[in-house]
Amino acid sequence: MRLPTLIGKELWERPVPMLTCLLAILLGVTALVAIRTVTVYSELAVARELDALGANVLILPKGVSLQDYYAADLHGETLPEEYVERIALSRLEGVDNLSPKLCVPATLDGRQVTLTGILPKSEFRAKAAWGGAGIFGRPIGCGAQADLPDNKPADPKALARKRVIETLGDYEALIGADVAARHGLKDGDSVELLGAKFTVLAVLPPTGSVDDARVFAHLHTVQGLSGKGEVVNVIEVVGCCKQIAAGLVDGLNGLLPEAKVVTIAQVVQTQQNVNKLMERLSLIFLAVLLAVGGAAMASTLYANVSERRKEIGTLMALGATPGLVLRLIVGKAFVLGLAGGIGGFLVGSAAAWWLGPQLANVAVRPLPSLAGLAVGIALAVTFLASLLPAWHAARLDPCICFKEV
Amino acid sequence: MLRLEAVSKTFTRRGSAVAALQPTTLEIAAGEYVAVVGPSGSGKTTLLSVLGGMLAPTSGKVVFDGRSVYDLSVRERTELRGRKIGFVFQTFNLVPYLSALENVQVPLYLSGLAPKEQRLRALAALERVGLSDRVHHKPSELSVGQQQRVALARTLANDPALILADEPTGSLDPQTREQVVDFLEEFRREGRTIVLVTHDPVLARRAQRMLPLVNGSIRAAAGAA
After folding, report:
1. Domains detected in chain B
2. Within an 8 Å CB–CB cutoff, is residue B43 touching chain A?
3. pLDDT band at A159 (very low <50, low <70, confident <90, very high)
4. Residues of A whose CB is below 8 A from B109
5. Which of A175, A356, A357, B37 is buried most deeply by CB count within 10 Å?
6. Reported ipTM
7. How confident is the model at residue B155 (pLDDT cuts 50, 70, 90)?
8. How many other C-beta atoms lie within 10 A of the C-beta of residue B174?
C-alpha cells in the first residue's frame, strides 16, 4: 500500500464524476493547444509571406522620396556600399535579409535595359563571419525562414518575389520576364552587357513591376563595369515586423544618420494586428480553461470529500495525518491534471493538424514545446482548484468515523 | 495505562452549551476490559472519541502511558493513535474500494511500514481471523460477519495496546456476534486493554468492569464478569 495506490483505486472506484472533471480540463487544454498551434503556424506563414513580398524597410539617400516601391533604386542618387557592411556587422536585431542595389543603364542587342547590381546573401554571411558577430551571428527572430511543413529550398527565380538571392556568380545574370521575351533569352544563354559576357542563370517569372524590364547581375561586377565605384542606390532590408516596431528603424537611423530609412507601415501593421488577435484569442481560451476547468475540478472534489467524510475520518482514526489527507486529495487532482494536460495536448495537436489547413490555410505540425505548457497549466489549474477541498478534508473531525453518515 | 482527570466536554449547539460529558475522573489499568454502557445520547461516543485522542476535552486531562494526550501536537497524537490504539467500529468502516488485504494494510502503511512488511503482517492478521481465503475480496463481496473480521484484523495489524470498540456487535447476527466477543476476549488475554461502548448487556457482562454512563456522567462502576 502506497499513496498512489490509494489515489488510483479511489479514482477507479468513482470514475464518472472524475471523468466529467477530466473532460472539462481536457477540453480547455485542447482548445488552448489547438488555437496556439494554429496561431504559431499562422504567424510563421504570415511572416513567410511577408518575406516573399520582399523588403519592408528601404534605406535611401537623404534627398530621395519614395514614389514606387519597386522602383526605389531608379533615382540616380547613391549611398556608399560601406553602409551594407555597417548593418551586417551591427548588433541590430530583426534583420532577416539585406539587398543593396545599383542601377545603371545598359544596352542589350541595341535596346535599352536597366542593369541592376545585387549582392547575394552568401556575401553578407561571409562578412558577418569575418566580423565574428553581426546580424547573422544571432538567431533571426521573426521566423520568416522557419521550418514550415511546405517550405521549399532556395531557387534563383525566387528573386522575383523575395528580392534576395542566395548566391550569384560574378558573370551570371538573371533576366526579367519582359527582357527575356523581347530578346528570346532562356537559361544558359549568353548576353553582352557593358562590354562583358554574362551567362543567363535564370529567367525570372513575370511580376508586373519594373523588375520585368531589368537584368540583374552581381553588384561588384556592375560597379566595376559602370565605373560608379563602391556605391548603391538603395539598400532593401527585410526586417522582422515585430522588431521594426520595437526599434529596428530607430536602430538603422542611429547607425546610418546620413541616410533615409523608410518602412512599409501597412505591412508591419497587418502582421502586428494578426499576431495581437491570435494572442488575445489564446488568452481568452486560457481564461476559459481556468474558469471552467478549475470550477469543475473544485466542485467535483468538494463533492468527493463530502461523500468520503466517514472514510477520511476512519483513515485519520487509523493514523492518517492531516498532511496525508491533504496529499490524498491534491494527489488525485494532480493525476487528473496530468491526464488532462497530456490528453489535451494530444487532442489539441490533432485538432490543430486537422483545422489548420481549413481555418488558416496553413499546414500544421504538433509543437512539442506546447506539451510542457499544456501540462503545466492543467496542473496549476487542478492544483489551485484542489487546495480548498483538500484543506477542508484535512480539517475534518475524525470523530465522524463513529457516526452514521 | 489510561487516566481521565476531571475531563468534560461541552458542545455549543445553536448558541446554547450542551454538556456531552460531565467532569469525569477515571482510571483504566493496562490489560483491563471495560464496557461503557448507557442509552443513546448519554455521551458514550464522546467518551470514546476523547479516549482515542480525536476529540479534545473542554477541560481536564487525558493521560495515556504517562503522556498527556492533548498536550501533544496533532501529528504526535495521530502517530500515537496509529501505533498504540486500535479501533473497532459498529459499521466496520472498511474502505469500499480496497480489498480485505489492502484494508488491513492501511494502518500499517500509515505507520510507515514498507509495502512488503505491510503485506506479510496483513496476511498474518487475516489468517488469524480465518479469512486467508478472502484476502482479495472487496468488502461488498464479503458477508457482514466477514467484514467485521476484516475490521478486527485491521485493528490488530499494528499490535495496539489499547482497543476502543464502538458497538462492535451492533450490526451482527447472534452467531457472528459470538465470534466477535470471543475475539475481544482473546485480545484481552493477550494483555491488551479494551474499552468498548455497547447497548448489548450480554456483551457488557463479559467485561471485567462496567461503566454506566447517563447524561454524560459515569455512575458507580460495577464489576462484571
Report:
1. 32-55+81-223 (3.40.50.300)
2. no
3. low
4. 1-2
5. A175
6. 0.89
7. very high
8. 8
